[in-house]
């Protein structure tokens, strides 16, 4: 399948470029190492390649597909969830925004990051997801209460992801401030920032627009069930 744009098939684009070291599979189909991410993609819609994609569905967490166009599901695949998402891109940030004290997060914070993501469910987050890119967070009395970071990295782009705030600390502007900081770092590297939001979440999309993100296209996010235990 020829890509009209690298973000039309962000998973395939990332795993065949800057994140190829995390790819599992071959030229027919690839997935992220399951300890890092849920996402996978076939090279194209051919039966041979969709069958190869099915063979990569080895994690009990299943497998996630993100596609802008029509892509057939592997034969026998069981869909756990499917939703339309708006893919948004920022080439610059809007002026303004509040300042929030934050710090870099690393291996010492891995357990706290996983716990916060498990509580708030900003998206698939596993034991090594924090290693996909730079993450920053807000701590209150040593407790991690908000974070944001990077996920997929096709050539020229980096995805803003893992944005979440503990329920007890919402309404303080942490999410917007952290997203702004992560996006600014991406732009300063000469890349463009992108993200995905559920198409039904109008308030979330509106928040991203205030930062400078604009809708690019609609993608379908499909989560397939993993193998039975």
Walkthrough of the structure:
The chain is globular. The strands form two sheets. It has an eight-stranded mixed β-sheet with strand order 4-11-5-10-9-8-7-6. Strands 1-2-3 form a three-stranded antiparallel β-sheet. It has two domains: 10-85, no CATH class; 88-217, Gcn5-related N-acetyltransferase (GNAT) (Aminopeptidase, 3-Layer(aba) Sandwich). The chain is 22% helix and 31% strand. The relative contact order is 0.21. It has helices spanning 10-15, 47-55, 110-120, 174-188, 202-211; strands at 23-26, 29-32, 40-42, 63-67, 79-90, 103-105, 135-140, 143-150, 157-165, 192-198, 214-224. It has five helices and eleven strands; from the N terminus they run H-E-E-E-H-E-E-E-H-E-E-E-H-E-H-E. Residues 100-229 form the N-acetyltransferase domain.
List its traits:
single chain, 3-stranded antiparallel β-sheet, alpha+beta, GCN5-like_dom, 229 residues
Give the helices and strands, then pairings.
Blueprint (H helix, E strand, L loop, with lengths): L9 H6 L7 E4 L2 E4 L7 E3 L4 H9 L7 E5 L11 E12 L12 E3 L4 H11 L14 E6 L2 E8 L6 E9 L8 H15 L3 E7 L3 H10 L2 E11 L5
Parallel strand pairs: 9-10
Antiparallel strand pairs: 1-2, 2-3, 4-11, 5-10, 5-11, 6-7, 7-8, 8-9
